[in-house]
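Run DUF1684 domain-containing protein through structure prediction, thanks.
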Amino acid sequence: MFLTAQLTSEWHAWHDARVADLATRFGALSITAIQWVQPGQSGRWFDLPGEFTFDGTWMHFKVDPGHTVGPTAASLEVTDAPDSSLVSATHTKDDTFSARVSLNTGFNWLLCGDVVVELLNREGYVALRKRDSKAPLLSRFIDVPTFPLDKSWTVQGKFEAFDQPQAHRIGTATPGLDRTETFPGTVTFELGGHTHTLLASGSVSNGLYINFYDYTNGVTTPEWRRLNLGVPDQSGGVIMDFNRTIVWPMAFTPYVACPAPVAQNMLPLRVEAGERKPAQTLSESGVNTPVLLVRTGGDIFYEKSLEHLRNLGVDVTIADSTTGELLPPLTGYAGLVVVGYDTPEVTEVNEQVLELLSDATGASVPVVAIGNVATLLSSQEKAEEHPWQASLESTDFSVASLDSEQQVSAGPVYDVTVNDVVARDRLFSRVVRYDEGGTSYIPVREIEPVLRKQQTRKKAEAEGTELTEPSTSATLESQAPGGQDAESGTPELQWSTLATWQDLIERFARLVHSQI
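Sure, done. The structure for DUF1684 domain-containing protein is below.
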């Protein structure tokens, strides 16, 4: 694939503008809550100093004495245009604000400190939505992950208008809330060796877009995505650059009602272009702590550890580098775990794994490598400018070129190897060791008795009993991956006591939570 400088530059300019739009003060990433309100209902919501009341047409907000709440710029605009058929707002001398919205409209209504209250109507249901300029998701947002730029995903489309726009009932990202959408016509194009015709949304005068499903949904992308097409030319021609496919706000927050595609807008292929599923998202329990776990081969037992990590509130995404599929970029992840077991003589190197390790080093993301894949991490930490073209005697790591078949001769194999971010953290500094080559690793078997004694002491102190050492037979759980054992002559990755691994997992969970 050959990318011209112009194509690359234009895409990056588009992507930068998209990121800037997402990062706006009261944009989609600032949405933190929604309150659906029934006629006659009153309540105090979003910690605002006052009470809301909905009379079935107008929403009123009475400000508590001694507090300040004001209208937004949008609210002032509709206050100055009281004859508007879409939205209206008023403000009385007794500090009562009132507003109304017509079907499927809304606007940012009230401003209180860092918070804006939006009033909206969706299919006759009225809601208040909180937008917080200091929202954690917005404050931590850096970028939205994308697939690699590929010009083969840019095709020519042809728009054909209906004699009369067609109305279809569609679903939304809010369960149980359907809506009616009007489609002005269809767009026909060639992609993946087949001809596709999808219903187009929007308008010819202001710009068209398509809402579509594809086989990546729910895996590497959200349930559906959107591609803006712009205004068609005189013959109905449109440029369809799937590299500019975007995710809806529902990919970040649950408090939105993004429209779903009609059933026929299904592309029966994997559209690995444009924006991917973001790693960091908001749910009713708060902002997640995402960690990427990459399998590089072998049969390592880690299900118990994975379950424990998730129980500690870590949102784990699993990717397998052996399938040939694109690994997700590190954007938004608070930690990286690489797990791999193979024969000690030769280990195949996946370019994507090396890229992830390089990105993690540059972004100071905590990394843990388990199994003899740890060789890659220890080598990566030492290679400063060209990590995948290094020859490092300390671990016998050698990779000739990205363009040739890549192999690694295995050197020292540790149960757990960590990068400097982990090694220097106060949670790990006392359990990390360094070999002669400077590799930072955790000697699980060596620290097991120490950790077990610490755990026993804590338990005894909590129960007010005397300190007693647990028997090794009662606590030792040794499992070799793939059912291999030492007698077979194949090096094995022995798992130490369950308690020891749980302790290390808890430390890692605390570390990545602190990154958010």
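The CA atoms of residues 76 and 183 lie 33 Å apart.
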